[in-house]
Design brief:
Layout lengths: L2 H25 L16 E4 L6 E4 L4 H22 L3 H27 L8 H4 L5 E6 L6 E8 L2 E9 L10 E8 L2 E6 H8 L1
Parallel strand pairs: 5-7
Antiparallel strand pairs: 1-2, 3-4, 3-6, 4-5, 6-7
Helix pairs in contact: 1-2, 2-3
Length: 196
């Protein structure tokens, strides 16, 4: 294999693995996971403002490795084919190009993506006390559906009346407890009267 073929192979492999990672990230397609932790000092930690969780992005991870391979191969191929440099110079310059590409991706991951990531806490996902609206009428001793807003998104849940009475559609309700995927609710006006 010639150097030109080697660089072209590295570029093609990096490009294919990048495409698989890109498509896999949107469709949750998993081939496997590779975790490489060389040193704790090499990690960038980002504290999220919600719940005090922290995220870390290692500078050597699957994404930065395939981007390095892609940039290394692409730069090496172009320098070998059109540059007229000797092999060690092409190898050095393509390695610098690969490191530059991987560094740019790492910076983006650590400074743009990671600060916005955080693990949801139990308080953020708790449905107890949520005020919602009946979207599917709750029948007498039966099940219906409620719609409520949580963490900026609309959510639906199966619901039953806590006292067994029917609750018509578009009635405001309060979630009193949540058990086995069912929200047990009471009418908001009943709860408000008790609070007076």
């Amino acid at each position: 294999m010639t150097w030109e073929g080697f660089y072209l192979f590295c570029f093609a492999l990096g490009l294919c693995l990048s495409a698989i990672a890109f498509v896999g990230g949107f469709s949750h397609f998993h081939i496997g996971h590779m975790h490489l932790h060389l040193a704790k000092a090499g990690h960038v930690h980002s504290s999220a403002g919600h719940g005090g969780s922290s995220n870390s992005v290692s500078p050597i991870n699957g994404f930065t490795l395939v981007i390095f391979l892609c940039w290394f191969g692409g730069a090496g191929y172009l320098l070998e084919r059109y540059g007229g440099f000797v092999v060690p110079v092409v190898l050095l310059l393509s390695t610098i190009a690969g490191i530059a590409g991987a560094t740019a991706l790492f910076w983006f991951m650590a400074h743009v993506l990671a600060p916005h990531e955080h693990a949801l806490t139990a308080e953020e996902t708790a449905t107890l006390g949520m005020v919602g609206r009946v979207s599917g009428a709750i029948r007498d001793h039966g099940t219906g559906e409620i719609l409520f807003s949580q963490n900026g998104s609309r959510r639906f849940a199966a619901a039953r009346s806590e006292n067994g009475l029917p609750i018509p559609r578009d009635t405001e309700v309060v979630v009193m407890r949540y058990e086995q995927g069912i929200a047990w609710v009471r009418r908001w006006d009943e709860v408000a009267d008790e609070l007076k």
